[in-house]
Design brief:
This protein has two domains: 5-210 and 259-285, no CATH class; 317-383, no CATH class. It has helices at 18-25, 51-56, 85-88, 131-142, 146-157, 180-189, 196-201, 213-222, 226-238, 241-255, 270-316, 318-331, 334-351, 353-370, 375-383, and strands at residues 5-10, 32-33, 37-42, 61-66, 71-77, 97-101, 108-112, 172-173, 263-264. The strands form two sheets. A seven-stranded antiparallel β-sheet has the order 2-3-1-4-5-7-6. It contains 15 helices and nine strands. With 388 residues, it is an alpha+beta fold. It is elongated, with a radius of gyration of 31 Å.
Length: 388
């Protein structure tokens, strides 16, 4: 297996300045670099740029994938974690799930980099599609969604080097059951079945009521002074709209006082969660199999009804259906040859007896003689018993 790596960064809150862009361009001579993104693929060699430097100079998220086991994300949080240390310390610190605070200010970098042996979890063929998922994870984390920390704790626990499968889970945030769809892709990136959130949420209440984005924006706007509102309006009109909007959204998140997300202590081990996930997966797959089989039966019944109706019409005017087979063969293609053979077989059964067999075999022989080089046509006719 050849080596493959994908290294990417993305700016979320604002575009890079000229100075920050120049810094990014010094980190790689091959990467595709813009004020909003930095991406490169490696089939040999490695990335030697400064990850922490790029996150401190404009970019907000980082993703690193390598097919020999690396699955890493890093999030730059300029306003710091939106939880007191007494809360976040219960989730962060397991294995390679770390928070590194800046030497000055509130900001820092949250990194998740569990260890996996090469080939141990399913390979990913397009890791770049997960960048949007990482952006969403960061957005929800900044907004104070404690479920994100629990999700990342699960990913950190799937680490064969430094974490025991008997490690006990941290407090379970309410509302995990509502997150399978939005957090599922990132769980898959780290090798976990998304149903582990269903297993983990068993026994946890639903999520607390929270303001939606419109309400949060209205509250923030109400707190603006007239001069500040004019300044922002001027920036929206004369500067890069996306960058200004991103800065405003960031300011809204920073201005909010994060409420305490309610949790429940269930005290299960990671091994227990994996066992329950496997049970859920087996039940889910069995249910899907039953649905698939039921759908197949309904489809077969419908096709049989349509076939019988068609056969009724065939008896009224067999010549019409013989002409249809001519047209199908003339159009060429394996599917058309198969369809022509099916029509002749149904016509044989519809007319019935020696008459039906005589009409269809005669026409099949005619088609074969008219198109002597169409071996696929002749094969389809033989499979239906229409040619010797």
């Amino acid at each position: 297996m050849s080596e493959y790596q994908f290294v990417a960064f993305r700016a979320v809150d604002r575009a890079l300045t000229d100075r920050e862009l120049a810094y990014a361009e010094r980190q790689s001579t091959r990467a595709q670099i813009t004020r909003w993104s930095f991406e490169n693929e490696y089939h040999f060699g490695d990335f030697h740029g400064n990850v922490a430097g790029l996150l401190c100079h404009g970019y907000d998220i980082h993703l690193h994938y390598a097919n020999y086991g690396v699955r890493k994300i890093a999030l730059r949080l300029s306003a710091g974690l939106p939880f007191p240390k007494s809360v976040w310390s219960k989730y962060i610190g397991i294995g390679e799930f770390r928070w590194k605070k800046d030497t000055k200010g509130k900001g820092g970098i949250l990194t998740l980099n569990p260890y996996h042996e090469s080939g141990e979890i399913e390979e990913i063929w397009d890791p770049g599609v997960y960048m949007d998922e990482v952006v969403e994870i960061r957005n929800r984390l900044v907004e104070g969604d404690l479920r994100v920390l629990y999700l990342l704790w699960l990913c950190a626990a799937l680490d064969n080097d430094s974490v025991s499968p008997d490690v006990i889970e941290p407090p379970v945030p309410r509302g995990l059951a509502e997150c399978v769809e939005c957090y599922g892709p990132l769980l898959e990136f780290f090798g976990l079945d998304p149903l582990i959130l269903s297993a983990a949420s068993a026994g946890a209440p639903t999520s607390p009521a929270r303001k939606d984005h419109t309400q949060r924006c209205a509250t923030w706007v109400d707190g603006l002074s007239a001069s500040e509102a004019k300044r922002l309006l001027h920036e929206l009109l004369v500067e890069d709209y996306a960058s200004v909007k991103a800065q405003i959204n960031s300011a809204i998140r920073v201005s909010e006082v994060a409420s305490v997300w309610p949790t429940v202590a269930l005290g299960r081990s990671f091994r227990e969660l994996l066992d329950q996930t496997n049970a859920f997966r087996s039940a889910h797959d069995a249910k899907q199999q039953r649905k698939t089989e039921s759908a197949a039966r309904r489809k077969a019944a419908k096709q049989e009804r349509e076939r019988k109706h068609r056969m009724t019409e065939m008896v009224k005017d067999p010549t019409k259906w013989l002409r249809k087979t001519e047209n199908l063969v003339h159009a060429r293609g394996i599917d058309n040859y198969q369809a022509a053979a099916d029509i002749l077989a149904d016509l044989r059964d519809a007319v019935g007896g020696d008459e039906g067999a005589q009409i269809t075999r005669k026409h099949a022989t005619h088609l074969a003689k008219k198109h002597p080089t169409l071996n696929r046509l002749k094969s389809s006719l033989r499979k239906r018993g229409l040619l010797e």
